[in-house]
């Protein structure tokens, strides 16, 4: 059994879709949800999904082994970032080489990096006059949005689109593709051991 931990900072809609995707899978399960935001709605979703949830702060993530110890305690094999806004520290990247992936709501390398998340990305896409946007799923290293890209999916951006309608299109791509890409990466990782 491959045990996944999902890190999220906000509402957790992707965390919910991923958890539901693996509910009847006898090889892979979402075993833990972690957040740096004690008010994040993802905690409510975790409760409804019957997945244990843990909250930590930025200092505990950056300057202690608390988060790594929690992952080890829950025997986590694979880490998924789903709307997680903090930089993953070196100790986690080293403990989970090529076993931490993230989803970004744009076509990297465009519109990535520190401070580029959520609606800020969609506003930047519209302001730049882009004709398409999408999602990028990538491995995590110790820099924002710079890990090797695993998968991208695109959608058009029309003149009529607002940052909100762009966000809706991107969310649909996330829900459609992220759980399958996670499953594919995990299955290929198992084969390569």
Describe the structure.
With 193 residues, this protein is an alpha/beta fold. The chain has a single domain, classed as Rossmann fold (3-Layer(aba) Sandwich). Helices cover 39% and strands 22% of the residues. The relative contact order is 0.16.
Mean pLDDT: 96
| CATH architecture designation | 3-Layer(aba) Sandwich
What is the succession of H and E elements?
A: EHEHEHHEHEHEEH
Summarize the biggest pleated sheet.
Answer: 7 strands, mixed
Radius of gyration: 16 Å
Unreliable runs? none
**Tally of separate domains:** 1
**Which strands sit side by side, in order, in the main sheet?**
3-2-1-4-5-6-7
Number of helices: 7
Structural class: alpha/beta
Strand segment tally: 7
Name the helicity range.
Answer: 25-40%
Short account of what is shown:
With 193 residues, this protein is an alpha/beta fold. Helix content is 39%, strand content 22%.
Task: Please outline the helices and strands.
Elements: E1 2-7, H1 13-21, E2 28-35, H2 42-49, E3 53-55, H3 58-63, H4 66-73, E4 78-81, H5 90-95, E5 100-104, H6 118-127, E6 132-139, E7 149-156, H7 163-191
Parallel strand pairs: 1-2, 1-4, 2-3, 4-5
Antiparallel strand pairs: 5-6, 6-7
Features:
193 residues; 39% helix; Rossmann fold; globular; alpha/beta
């Amino acid at each position: 059994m491959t045990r996944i931990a999902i890190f999220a900072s906000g509402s957790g809609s992707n965390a919910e879709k991923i958890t539901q995707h693996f509910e009847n899978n006898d090889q892979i399960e979402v075993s833990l949800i972690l957040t740096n935001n004690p008010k994040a709605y993802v905690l409510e979703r975790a409760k409804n999904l019957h997945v244990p949830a843990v909250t930590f702060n930025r200092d505990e993530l950056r300057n202690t082994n608390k988060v790594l110890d929690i992952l080890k305690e829950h025997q986590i094999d694979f880490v998924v970032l789903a709307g997680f806004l903090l930089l993953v520290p070196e100790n986690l990247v080293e403990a989970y080489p090529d076993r931490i992936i993230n989803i970004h709501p744009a076509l990297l390398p465009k519109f990535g990096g520190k401070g580029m998340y959520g609606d800020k990305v969609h506003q930047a896409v519209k302001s730049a006059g882009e004709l398409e946007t999408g999602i990028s799923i990538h491995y995590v290293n110790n820099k924002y949005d710079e890990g090797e890209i695993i998968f991208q999916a695109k959608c058009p951006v029309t003149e009529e689109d607002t940052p909100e309608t762009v966000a809706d299109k991107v969310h649909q791509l996330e829900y459609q593709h992220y759980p399958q890409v996670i499953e594919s990466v995990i299955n290929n990782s198992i084969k390569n051991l």
